[in-house]
Amino acid sequence: MARIPPGLIINPAPGVRYKVPAVKKLTKELILKDKVKFQKNRLGAATCLTEMSLMMACWKENDYKDSACAKEITAFHKCTEEATKERRRVKAADLKGVVQEGRLSSRNINKLLPRFPHPVKPH
Questions:
Q1: 85 has a pLDDT exceeding 70
Q2: What PROSITE patterns would the database entry show (predicted)?
């Protein structure tokens, strides 16, 4: 019978072997840092795609004449203005510390971490 090298286990299916992952020892204690890395808020779904596609389809049908597509262009501009206002509102709320969409921003986390420092152990 062949000798099985350490770390390898023979599977019940004949000839199939896999390696057992090694257990790593912790070199540092699991403690949060005093700050987190700044990250921009993830972008949500793209806005005004429907209006933009309708406007482009109208342009294509009317040989790219703005006068024939005034209704679609107005709808697209109105949508982009509303999206810009919403982005500004969310950014202002983030600067005030208001939680948006159930998630804290990195800015708000960095404000909270000094309030609750982790205890320092004597070595």
A1: yes
A2: CHCH
Tell me how far apart the terminal alpha carbons of the chain are, to the nearest angstrom. 52
If we measure between CA atoms, which residue out of 91, 81, 73, 80 comes closest to residue 47? Answer: 80
Task: Give the residues across from 8 on adjacent strands.
Answer: 19
DSSP state of 22: P
CA distance 17 to 10: 5
What pLDDT does 12 receive? 57
Instruction: Give the three-state DSSP class for 103.
Output: strand
**How far apart are alpha carbons 18 and 44 in whole angstroms?**
41
**Entry pTM:** 0.55
Q: Radius of gyration of the chain from Cα atoms?
A: 29
